[in-house]
Amino acid sequence: MFSGLVTGDATIATIKKDTQTITMTIKTSASNLKGLKVGDSIAVNGCCLTVESFTETKFVVTMMPQTFKKTIFKSSKIGDQVNIERALQVTSRLEGHIVTGHIDDVVSLIKKQQNENAIELFFKLPSRLIAQVVPQGSIAINGTSLTVMDINKNIFSVGLIPHTQENTNLAQLAVGDQVNVETDILGKYVAKNLILFQGAK
């Protein structure tokens, strides 16, 4: 379980792509890996992965076919900046929102604009996720907890404050770039129960 409060201080050091699996080595600062153990969960661009081995400044993860298909990692390359987040501790403040690390889909940036000191990003959602996203609700983009500014049909927007611009990989996005998206877990349960309720009528 994660909160969506990520650090962008990480890059892909090595990447090996097989037919439907990927093994990556991620390089970051020693402070981000303090106390890390083999078997720990760590989110990379919002995707919950298991640490297989590590050094003081690097860790290795492997993705299975399902993750390969549903994330942006199939097009990732060495040197790409990634957002990482260690799993939540029970004693920590939950300052973002509940993020499971299970990616729902890949979405594309269709518009980017500067609004004074903020950057507004617009993404196109697949139709199956529209009911799970609401204005002022939460959404995770590349693992970053963000507030939905607006949604119009299948287009939603989020804003990046200066802190988020400086500490994640989102400010670097260009129109056409793809990101991992995870909708709010609460929205998933509400949408599911509405479907079940309507089906019971």
Based on the model shown, name its key terms.
2 domains, 3 helices, 13 strands, 201 residues, Elongation Factor Tu (Ef-tu), domain 3, 6-stranded antiparallel beta barrel, mainly beta, single chain
Commentary on this structure:
The chain is mainly β. It has 2 domains: 10-86, Elongation Factor Tu (Ef-tu), domain 3, CATH 2.40.30.20; 105-200, Elongation Factor Tu (Ef-tu), domain 3 (Beta Barrel), CATH 2.40.30. The chain is built from 3 helices and 13 strands. The longest helix has 16 residues, at 185-200. The mean pLDDT is 93.
Structural class by sheet pairing and helices: mainly beta
Named at the architecture level, the CATH assignment of the largest domain is Beta Barrel
User: Largest sheet, order of strands side by side?
Assistant: 8-9-12-11-10-13
CATH class of the largest domain: Mainly Beta
Q: What is the mean predicted local confidence, pLDDT?
A: 93
Pathway: Cofactor biosynthesis; riboflavin biosynthesis; riboflavin from 2-hydroxy-3-oxobutyl phosphate and 5-amino-6-(D-ribitylamino)uracil: step 2/2
EC number: 2.5.1.9
Function: Catalyzes the dismutation of two molecules of 6,7-dimethyl-8-ribityllumazine, resulting in the formation of riboflavin and 5-amino-6-(D-ribitylamino)uracil.
Lumazine-binding repeats: 1-97, 98-194
